[in-house]
Structure formats: structure tokens, C-alpha cells
């Protein structure tokens, strides 16, 4: 199977949907919810809930490549966060802030979220293997 056809077998609708669902994290911060709840608790809780949703969705859809799927979800989420930060930070603060101000920050956001996808993808993969036994 060629690399190109491997990408075609991924459920891109699922990838985009799960990436958008994860945007709850930055929007919690923008709307002041994270500060109201308490920043570390709100962020950690949101990350755990999003991770569970990602794993459950891939499990229920029986994704053929759960690890690759969720790595792409993490990367896509990172791209969306970078774009949203670039659009909203000048509007909300009057100046560009966030990852777009540093190439290292862009790489950091993408790598961190790819790792998040890798971990959740591994968990989903293990659950799918247990189910098939």
C-alpha cells in the first residue's frame, strides 16, 4: 500500500471533528472559564475529558489506524490553535501573541499535540485490540 493510499483510508471527517471538539480548551481560557474554575484544574480536567472523547470516538468508529488518526487529530488541533491565536490575539489584546510570534513555539505546539494524539491513539489501539480478542 502506498503512503498516499494510507492517508486516504483515514477518516478525515472524524479527524477534523475531534480537532474542533478540542478547541474547547482555548475557548475556556478566552471566555474566562479557566480562570473562574482555577487554571490548572480546568485545563487538566478539559484535557482528560477531551482525551476520553477522542479515545471513545476512535473506539466506537473502529478506526483502522487509531494511532495515526489521533496523531493527525493532535496536529490538526495544534494548527487550529495557532490560527485562532493569530486571529484573536490582536483583536483581544491589540497585538499578536502566542505561537506565531516564535517558530520554536509553533514547533512546540505541533509536537506537544502530536504526542497527545500518540498517547490517546495508543490507548485506543490497545482497547480496540482487547475488544477483538
Question: What does this molecule look like?
Answer:
By secondary structure, the protein is an all-alpha fold. It has one domain (3-132). It has helices at residues 3-8, 12-21, 24-30, 33-37, 39-61, 66-93, 103-132. Helix 5 packs across helix 7.
What layout of secondary structure does this protein have?
Layout: H1 3-8, H2 12-21, H3 24-30, H4 33-37, H5 39-61, H6 66-93, H7 103-132
Helix pairs in contact: 2-6, 3-5, 5-7, 6-7
Transmembrane segments: 12-34, 40-60, 67-92, 104-128
Keywords: Membrane, Transmembrane, Transmembrane helix
Q: Which short descriptors sum up this protein?
A:
133 residues, mainly alpha, 7 helices, globular, membrane, transmembrane, transmembrane helix
Integer average pLDDT: 92
Tell me the total number of β-strands.
0
Coarse morphology: globular
Major beta sheet, specifics?
none
Radius of gyration: 16 Å
Strand content: under 5%
Into how many domains do the coordinates divide? Answer: 1
| Helix and strand run | HHHHHHH
For the termini, the CA-CA separation is 26 Å
Give the count of helical stretches. 7
Overall helicity: over 70%
Q: Which regions are unreliable across 5 or more consecutive residues at pLDDT < 50? A: none
Q: Strand pairing plus helix content: what structural class?
A: mainly alpha
Short description:
By secondary structure, this protein is mostly helical. Helices cover 82% and strands 0% of the residues. The protein has one domain.
Amino acid at each position: 500500500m502506498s503512503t498516499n493510499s494510507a492517508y486516504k483510508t483515514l477518516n478525515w471527517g472524524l479527524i477534523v471533528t475531534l480537532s474542533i471538539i478540542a478547541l474547547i480548551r482555548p475557548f475556556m481560557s478566552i471566555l474566562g472559564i479557566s480562570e473562574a474554575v482555577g487554571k490548572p484544574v480546568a485545563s487538566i480536567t478539559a484535557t482528560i475529558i477531551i482525551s476520553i472523547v477522542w479515545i471513545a470516538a476512535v473506539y466506537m468508529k473502529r478506526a483502522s489506524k487509531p494511532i495515526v488518526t489521533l496523531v493527525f487529530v493532535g496536529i490538526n488541533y495544534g494548527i487550529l490553535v495557532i490560527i485562532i491565536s493569530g486571529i484573536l490575539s490582536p483583536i483581544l489584546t491589540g497585538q499578536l501573541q502566542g505561537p506565531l510570534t516564535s517558530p520554536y513555539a509553533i514547533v512546540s505546539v505541533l509536537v506537544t499535540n502530536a504526542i497527545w494524539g500518540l498517547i490517546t491513539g495508543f490507548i485506543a489501539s490497545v482497547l480496540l485490540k482487547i475488544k477483538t480478542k
